Amino acid sequence: MATAPEGGKMRSLSDMLAESKVFSNVEVLSPHFTPKRLLYREREINSIERALAPSLKGERGRNLFIYGKTGTGKTSCVKYVIDEIKNIPNVRAKISFINCRIYNSRFRVLNKIISDHMPTYAKRGFGAVDLYEKLTSWIEEDNKILVAVLDEVDVVKDLDDLIYTLTRINSDIRAGGVTIIGISNKVSFKEELDPRSLSTLYETELVFAPYYATELYAILKDRANAAFRKDIIDDEIIHFVAALAAKEGGDARLSLKILTKAGEIADENDMSKVSMKEAQEAAKVAENEIVYDVVSTLPEHQKLVLYSVSLLTQSGGSYKKLTDGVDTYLFSGEVYNRYKSLTEGMKKEPKSERWYRKYLSELEMQGLIASFESGKGIRGHTKLIKLLYPSNKMCDVLEKEIFGNNESSLEKEVPVA
Ligand SMILES: Nc1ncnc2c1ncn2[C@@H]1O[C@H](COP(=O)(O)OP(=O)(O)O)[C@@H](O)[C@H]1O
Ligand SMILES: [Mg+2]
């Protein structure tokens, strides 16, 4: 942010430290900010409250599963209800909000719950069995109800084990218990789950629909009023951003990101108004950032398939590609071969072609690739694949994701009975 944008003039350090001409409170636009008002989500907030009501009275509630596309307000609504509960006196439930992107294994989730409620115990470096026993006896000692909110639950590596462990507590104890609220951005997540976890998690379901352009407009307007100085941003720009984000899947986060970027670009250029040009530029940047964020939550083998597509798209060398003048298409078969050799090179077992086809449709649903049937004539009848984002950037991101971190081996992964 400190660098001068192309064509913009260099800013001195004192310029940068000076008060922004554009923003009065940029924090309001940050994804971590929880707004006081959540528009158009009364019904959803009400359903979450209803699901939690028994737990608050000390009874085991039904588990709730919340899903819907990214940026439809799932996390915000749940956090909103948790904050409400904090203000109610004598609530029996103990709540843990767990961001599974950070706590992405059963061990980490258990450890997080323990550290939320028994901080001194959590630091002692116990294994999963000890954590399980500690948690169970803590719940049992005065019939507590633990509400475990698992946000972005689909990224937990051993999710079936985690769900099994948490529900196991309920059958191991006589009173008190655990209620699970699962949240996922993946609409098709159901299909990936083991039937037992599925029936546990999806006891009650709540779907968050994408926002319409008019709704996004109202959400943005609310935030823009608080974040920007007066007369910096015209309604026209907010309408434009809302319409764009509505077209891209009704994602409020994307719309806020575009608005923030547009303001930042104007700020860097010392402008006193955000124009359409900044908004358009911002849209491009924001959209890419969000895509790479999506990539980081893909399961390992989907990452490997996407990496194979990216590598082949980038190399353009020895493989056969089809070019229609503008676009590059890859044969599904050669992507699979590349994936296989890549996986074997990493001393991992490649998944079967059946799984591979599932991964392709998953990647397509996430909007990362497009696929077409070739029609007759090209190698009989085959599937053609096209990467929808720049291959060099995609390769960089995936390399970091696939080869970058290897911290999980430090954990004690002891099986729980
Ligand atoms: N109904 C709403 N009213 C106001 N802001 C919203 C609303 N829905 C979402 N947002 C904002 O959009 C962003 C994304 O929302 P979030 O709850 O993180 O979505 P999800 O968890 O579904 O991906 C957050 O910054 C949030 O404050
Ligand atoms: Mg979320």
What this model shows, in words?
- This protein has a 5-stranded parallel beta sheet with strand order 2-3-4-1-5, with helices on both faces.
- By secondary structure, it is of the alpha/beta class.
- The protein is built from 16 helices and 9 strands.
- The protein has helices at 13-17, 42-56, 74-86, 106-117, 119-122, 128-141, 159-172, 195-201, 213-227, 235-247, 252-268, 276-296, 300-315, 332-345, 353-365, 391-403; strands at residues 64-68, 93-99, 145-151, 177-184, 204-208, 321-323, 328-331, 369-373, 383-387.
- The radius of gyration is 24 Å and the shape is globular.
- Helix 4 (106-117) crosses helix 7.
- The chain folds into 3 domains: 42-208, 3-Layer(aba) Sandwich (Rossmann fold), CATH 3.40.50.300; 212-296, Orthogonal Bundle (Helicase, Ruva Protein, domain 3), CATH 1.10.8.60; 300-404, Winged helix-like DNA-binding domain superfamily/Winged helix DNA-binding domain (Arc Repressor Mutant, subunit A).
- Residues 1-8 and 406-417 have low confidence and may be disordered.
- 49% of the residues lie in helices and 12% in strands.
- The structure holds adenosine-5'-diphosphate (ADP) and magnesium ion (MG).
- Magnesium ion is lined by residues 74-75, 151.
